[in-house]
Amino acid sequence: MMRLVLGLVVGVMMIGQVAQAQNQPLRLEITEGVIEPLPFAVPNFVPANAAAAELSSDLARVVAADLIGTGLFREIPSSAYISQITDFGAPVQFADWKAINAQALVTGSISVSGNRVTVGFRVWDVFSDKEMKPGLQFSGTKEGWRRMAHKVADAVYSRITGEGGYFDSRVVFVSESGPKNQRRKRLAIMDYDGANVQYLTDSSAIVLAPRFSPTGDRVLYTSYESGFPRIYVLDVGKVQRRVLESQEGTMSFAPRFSPDGQKVVYSLSQGGNTDLYLMTISNGQSKRLTSTPSIETAPSFSPDGSQIVFESDRSGSPQIYVMATSGGEAKRISFGNGRYGTPVWSPRGDMIAFTKQNKGRFHIGVMRANGSEERLLTASFLDEGPTWSPNGRVIMFMRETQGASGRSSLYSVDISGRNLRPVQTPDGGSDPAWSPLQK
Amino acid sequence: MNLVSKLIAGCALMALAACNNPTDGTDGGPIDPNAGTTSPGLIGDQTSPSYFQQAIGDRVLFTVDQSTINSEAQSILQAQANWLLANTDYNATIEGHADEQGTREYNLALGARRANAAREFLISKGIAGNRLKTVSYGKERPIEICSEESCYAKNRRAVTVLLGGLAG
Questions:
Q1: How far apart are CA B9 and CA B75, in angstroms?
Q2: Would you state the pLDDT for residue A79?
Q3: What distance in Å separates residue B6's CA from the closest CA in chain A?
Q4: ipTM of the prediction
Q5: Which homologous superfamily does the CATH classification assign to the domain defined by A170-434?
């Protein structure tokens, strides 16, 4: 496994800082309105030695792709550059970058020693003629170079928007192949941008809806490997799994970790009735949270662990409810037209993403945790299963196309509803779950 | 006793191997028509799983979001119950399914309701509960793949999959 060492690049911080504030400092406020993408430039990182030359462009390209992918930034192509960055320590010629309207400039250095890669970067507020906070340096293994690029992009994004980043993160999902009536499914994990795909199970049994632990080291999922749907927990590093809930004559599914990683909330079906249960992982003891003849499923914790949002058809159609983690009375929060499902609490705690079905269409939407301010972000034949980026700005979900040749794939969309884009996967993809930001 | 059960009883008296010995290499394992396996036995043999699947009907259908056993489903399940009463070497797993309209989790729970409704009906007709398991596939295993009601109607089903014969 790769380890990243985070440290300040003290040496280069001394150079060429002209602290003139003739313009407003560079700051991109992410608002709900339409915004003009902020123009930036990220020249190839300056290689400190010959061994670093091959990654020089690759790093810059991943940083650029991360930033462009947000829909908030627009890259100035290198063909427009007036000056080149050939010395990471030399003063930046701000006039040359102003002339091509690069409001932000990212410069970087890379050195490679054996399998060790060290990356440094600085972010420049071009129109203020100054650096935005001191630069940083990361070290890691050569195979982990993409993570270092994502770390750089996270820092750039964070400095310019004031929000946390989300690029150094992973997604666990179900890789799908074959036609609808013979769909083969297996668990896979990848970087958030679709790179470094690794398979965690084979396709001998149906697998559904993997979910990360709060630290990203374990995954809960549902598998039919026993012939019945049961919940398993998988150690991502070791790719070892064990069954978590295997009560005879029952089915268990829709698991999610509590924010402290100690408990699992899930659905258990017995005698045709599906209710919510809460298991303490260490001792395997379960507590029943709901006792109704209706369907209770798709539970998700609030980030503070005090509440659970879930889906129930107790009113006659599937709607979203919130209850205390201890169980008891639940309060309905969805009241619009249509059917609501798969509620997921945002990492910030203020919003709940959901799947909505109305008039033969599916939507991914968000609402406040009290059910107000519902906003639909997407519409298609079948959109389903939202998951939040670690910073709560972006939602990834599954889209399945209509008809006999229907295929499922992953998409992401900003919570403003902008920037809908496909997420690349080798085959079809469904049931994505976004990891927390990696350490 | 209706005609079907009389014929089944007759076959059992004749003690033919084909009455209760599934062939085709399934060896008493699950006989799942959805998996594309060939049904063992001849349809003319009323104790064969083929007869159960095709002549009696191994599945009942449901309306959207419902798990109610309608009158057509009742007559099919009644015949299934008669067959299971006469062919005690077989147990069954009832698979509940949903169409693709609806979320994965909800459809799993809905399939569980449907499978259970069929199971309860069979139990009410005298089949021992310990012979009948249920499993829900939600929307994971459609048999028809168009995205129209004609396909959805066939996908909203509970399928009684025979297990066993003597080997089971």
A1: 20
A2: 97
A3: 33
A4: 0.91
A5: TolB, C-terminal domain (2.120.10.30)
